[in-house]
Amino acid sequence: MAARSNFNRIVVDDAAALANAAAERLMARINANPGRIAICLSGGSSPKQLYRLLSTDPWADRIPWQRVHWFIGDERFVPAVDPLNNMAMARSIFLDSLAPPANIHPIPTDTAGPDESAHRYEGELKAFYGASRLDPTRPLFDLVLMGAGPDGHTASLFPDDPALKETTRWVIGVGHAHVEPLVPRVTLTLPALSSCREMLFEIAGAEKRAILTRLSAGENLPANRARSAAETVWLVDRAALEL
Hints:
Blueprint lengths: L6 E6 L2 H17 L5 E5 L6 H7 L4 H4 L5 E5 L1 E3 L9 H13 L15 H16 L13 E4 L24 E4 L10 E4 L1 H5 L3 E6 L5 H8 L5 H4 L5 E7 L6
Parallel strand pairs: 1-9, 2-3, 2-5, 5-8, 8-9
Antiparallel strand pairs: 4-7, 6-7
C-alpha cells in the first residue's frame, strides 16, 4: 500500500451528506484556481448523487462553467450513447445541460479497440496539459473523483492486473474487466490519476462495508495504491463503516 502522507478520511452521516461534502470539496478546488480548471470524473454508482446535486441550484450557479474542463478516469468500451458508458451518465445528468461542449472530454469509443482509444485520449490529455511528461510541480487535474469496487479496484485498475505496473503511459486499454459489466475498458494509469491537487474517493452504502474493511486494514489493492501526489481524501458514510 502507498504511504498515507496527506491522507484524510472524513465520515458523514449518509449518502446525501456525502454528496454535499463532495460538492463542497469540488467547489473549493475550483475556487482555488483562477485559471483553467480540470476535473476528472468517475463512473459507476458512487458519484450519481453528486452529479445530480451539481445540476441543481445553487450549485450550478456557483460553477464557472466556461473555465472548467471535465475528463473521465475510465470508460467501458461501449458506444457513447450506451447506458453502460460512464461519461454518458455524467452528460445526461448535468454536463450536456450546463457545460460548454468543448469543455467535455469523453474517452472515445468509436475506435478499433481499447488500445486505440487509450492512445487517442492520452494525446488529448497531453495536448490539454501542454507537455508529454507529467511535472510533479504542475498537476494535470485539480480534482480526481474515485470510487472503490467490491474487489478493491478503482477506475478500471483491477487487482493483480499488469496495468498497475504502468509507469510511463497516461492511459491504457484493459482487455478484460474483473467485475460486471464484463466489457473491455480504457483507464487512466496510476501516474496520471495521481497528478492532481486532490484525489477524492466516495465510499457509501452497506454494500461497501466489506471492501472498506479490507482497504482500512491496508491490503495491497488498487484503491489503496491510488494516491494524489498532494492530498487524498476518503469520504465515507456511516453505512459503509463496520457496525
